Every structure is written in C-alpha cells, then in structure tokens.
Amino acid sequence: MPVVLAEEQVVARTRSRRSGPRRWLRSVEWLVAAGLHPRASATTVTIARDLAERMDFDSGHVRYCLEGMVARLGLSRATISRHVAYLRELGSLVWVERGCRTNAHRARGLDGYAGTATVYGAVIPAIYDDAHGHIVVGDAYAARIVIDQRGITPASPERVEAVDNSPVDNRSSEACETPSRTWVKQDGQLKMAGGSNYSARQRASRSKTRVHHQSTPVEGRRRTAADVRRAARTIRLVRALVSWTQTVPLRRLEFVLRPFTDRGLDAHEIAAELTAMCSGMRWRPQRPDVFISQRLAVVAAYDQRLAEETEAGRRAVAPMSNPEWAAWIETKQRRRETEAAAVRPRNDSDRAAAQVDWNIWPEVVAHMEEDQDDAIDLYGVALCRFAVGQGDRLELTGNRV
Asked: Phi and psi at residue 210, in whole multiples of 5°?
C-alpha cells in the first residue's frame, strides 16, 4: 500500500470513504496489525482510540485538541503529532479544517485569544474494503458499503455485518420529519373529567429520571474537596458560556459534568461538547441536568459496546491469520531489511574482514574496475597493489605462453 500523499490528506481530495468512530477504529487496528505502514505501532492505535472517544457519531469529525491528548495519554507533543501523521498517511484521517491563528474567542464575543482548532475526519481506505470483500457504492469520501442479504435463509443463517451508512445522509430533503413527542396512556388508567393530573405526572416523571448522587473516584483515588472546588470553578465558566444550562444549580451541574472535568477538559472544551449535544435540535431541554446525564449514559454504553465489538472483530478478522498475506508481509519486511543493510555506512569492522584473506585478489581487481575509490576504501592500498601486481604477472605469463 503506497503512503497517501499530502494533497490527498484533505476531505476534498481523499480517496477514502467516511465512517463513524466504531468501524473507523476497527479499520485502524486492522491496518496497523497488517503492517501497512512501517512506523505505525500500538501507540498509533492508542491515539486513534482517544480520537474515537471524542468523535462525532454522525459526521465522524473530531477536534485535534493536542494539549488535551498530551495530558490524557502522557505522550509528548512530537509523538502525538508524528502518529497522527501516520494515520493520515494510512488514509484513515483527513483534514476537515486546518488550525490557524484566527482568534476563536472573538467569534464568540469573548475576551482573550485562542487559535482556531484543527478538525479531522474519520475515513476508511479502499484497501480495507478490498480485504474484507465489501461492496462499495459511490466514490471517495461520499462512498458507502452495502451487503446483499437476499441469499440468507433461516436454514443457513450467516452473521452479516451491518451496513455502514452514516446518519448524515438523513439531512437531505427527502428525510423524515422529527417525530412528535406523544404521551402514551396505559390500559386501565383513569381518565379525569377536567384533563390529566399534570402535576402528579410531572412528579412521577421527575422521580423516574432522577440522577442518583454517588461518589466517583478520580484517577483511581478518592475524590477530595479540592477536586470539587477546582471543578466548580470550571463549571461556573461553562454555565456562563452555555445559556441553556444556567437554570441548573452550580453544585448540581458540577456533579453531572464530572465525566468531563475528570478527563481534564477546560471550560471551553466542555462548552463545545454541550453545544454539540443540542446541535440540530430546535428545542432546549427543560431539565438540562437530566438531559446531560442521559446523553452521557448513552455515550458510556456506546463505548462499552464499541470495545466489545472491537474485540470480537479483532478475533474474527485477523490479518496475519491469512498465510498468503503473512508471507507477503514477511517478504516485504525482508526486502526492507536488505535495502537498509545496503545503505548502511561502512565501518572499520567491514574493512578488517575484507582485508583478512589476500587470496581474493581477483575480486579486488574486478571491484577496482567498477569503482576504484570504493575498492581502495574497503580493501586498503596494500591489498589493491598486490591484486594489481598479481593481475599484471598473470597477464605477462599468459603472453609468454
């Protein structure tokens, strides 16, 4: 697989198809395990998992947030930048928006300065689809895979992977309208003459959606009062940035947003996450704390299911289990080692080994005819003179005969 060129690492020119975080992470693990990039390693997969955790489910877009990755993963800036470049060269990441020095705070009407963030898009290269036998419809970034299920019968059931169609396409003009929220009445429920008892129903709904307080650890240790005060300062700024959270008390909001503050996110990053939760909606939640906790619970369940399916996919599709693929990878590795040995600089041990046996003077003469300077550097002046003398003597003897 050739390395993807720099001009094809942008969303407008990529040859890879877009994908969601679940199947994208599975493809990255497969590409790294297959050895398609000489420098990709387990660190590349670790960085890809961090990106998948923060990736948008619909569009597959994720903000770079280099400083946050350094704090979470414990890796240096250079290491993370280098392995993200490997993902781009594999055809698994493309630039959606490149970071620049334009002040992002000014667009929000805030004081201070913060550069515009870099946004990446998750894509899957064609070599992954070819290896798994996927039927690709479309071209480049807008391509999709389809699976024909007409031949599957109850007598011969086969496990078929779901179609990788992103919900982004549902935004077209033919998409269905947002379903209305209706109240389903249970069988046997009493009907009041003056209408439903709204206050009783509201209390019942509030009791069902209550978020139970519990103490959660921070980085494997017990949470302290200093941690709570530090998080409260961050959440105070978050509540000022996100208007629909201002109805929630500060202490309550700090408890609900602990999954974000425990990861080390600052106020602006948390505000961006909350804004993304309500993107595309025409309404604002009446109880923001319950809304946020439910969305975070969905994300946690998705992450757990992602880990289980990733492990199952790793066991089901192991690249090195194919003998032909393993032989090709071994041949490629051997060729790479041979080329590296050929360009290895010559040292004194190589020269000493070449000058031990002077009976190889015919090889020395042939080497001098090809490259005299290189032969003198390898065999030395004395052995080269001896080889030339032996060659002249043999030539004179042949003339006399």
From this structure: -70, 135
